[in-house]
Amino acid sequence: MKKILFGLVASTFSLGAIASTVGISNHPFLMKKHIFNTEYNNYFNDGAGSGLNVMYHQRYNSQLNFDAGFGFTNGDRESRAFVGANMQLIPDYGRQPRVSLKGTAETENLDGDRINTFGVAPTISKGFVMWGNEAFPFISLPLKVSLNENEKEYETSTAVALGMTGRLPFESTRNLVGNIEANFSLRNSYASLVMGVSLPIE
Which of its termini does the chain have fewer beta carbons within 10 Å around, N or C? Predict the structure, then answer.
């Protein structure tokens, strides 16, 4: 599992991506858990900078979960706030992968302009046991529309998201869940890397 995480991190630095879209929304957390997530984000172009995302995640039932949060960077992307809802269409069962659809909305301050973005991210994920640890890799196709309030213009973007979630494979951190995500640019996207840690509590 450590080798796979390292490979995902290394590959991100040479490929286009957009910020975390799927995040931990496909991870099979237990019901009635409140999950608090912090993510390190690093944008490599189009407003380059690094910063932190903080997110709250709630699993409503076996098919639906919600998340909301905010983030800050030290580049042109000064701040962002976001919400999302993920609906399971097909469960992860036997050899069958999980298929879900996540709706997203966010607002960010980019170089003095207010950008509002809405999108959907169809996602396929599957749980595996790797070296005695369970991991949940996923692939997604985020489709977004971004509206610039200042310029009164809009732009569409498409990417391929690749990531994974799983409990951290260390004895002292067994209650923590790690996530990593890269969204490979197809159209009008920008490069970033997101890695996070989540704490589920009652």
Answer: C
